[in-house]
Prior knowledge:
A three-stranded antiparallel β-sheet has the order 1-3-2. The longest helix is centred in the last third of the chain and has 26 residues, at 203-228. By secondary structure, the chain is mainly α. Helix 1 (15-31) crosses helix 3 and helix 5 (112-121) runs antiparallel to helix 6. The chain is globular, with a radius of gyration of 21 Å. It has nine helices and three strands, in the order αβααββαααααα. Helix content is 66%, strand content 4%. It has two domains: 15-80, Winged helix-like DNA-binding domain superfamily/Winged helix DNA-binding domain (Arc Repressor Mutant, subunit A); 85-228, GntR ligand-binding domain-like (Four Helix Bundle (Hemerythrin (Met), subunit A)).
Amino acid sequence: MNTTPKKPTNVKPKHADLASIAYDSIREAIITGRIKPGERMGQVEIARELGVSERTVREAFARLAAKGLATHEPFKGVKVAALSLDDLHEVYVMRALLEGRAMELAASRISPEDVQKMRELLPLTVAGNLPDSVKQAQAANRDFHWIAIRASGSRILATILEQLWELMFAYDLLYPNTDEVDISKNDFTQHGELIAALEAGDGQKAAQINTEHITKTIQILIAHLKEKT
């Protein structure tokens, strides 16, 4: 039996791992509202809090900026992005264009299993009367759309759309009143039509339904937010 002690295993996270951990931690703080839109993020303070180097935090900041969640201003540092209603409208317009293409591709590629998953999510996309029901419906809505986006098979489309969805989360922080807007009952009909088009392999119809769905959503959302601001 070999009793020679084993050498210590180096399990210290690599720098790239630390950068990802820092990014996830800061992003979570933004999404949960612990760091507010327009608030400056101190590089030194965050590095100390997370127990990582300032270089690691800088890399996390750069990634947040690339996702549209942060902005860098010379001599002022890095701030959580503060986004306008015009920006919000543009995000939805871009999402409608790109997601329409994703639905067109998905119609010829989506599996019966994925169609079934979308069908199972359909009732969950409708908000009820319980607290947080709108947020839960929004989460189900995201899962619903992303099944079809991934089924498109386009890695580039998925990457760009992921960034647009991240920006939509940023708006939820800047405009908390978005939770007051319940369009899920209208979504239910269009979501059902989208499933039918995808199942039938009709890419043009699927793209049209999805584009109309997103366009209607942003019209209702912006009208509501203008009343509140």
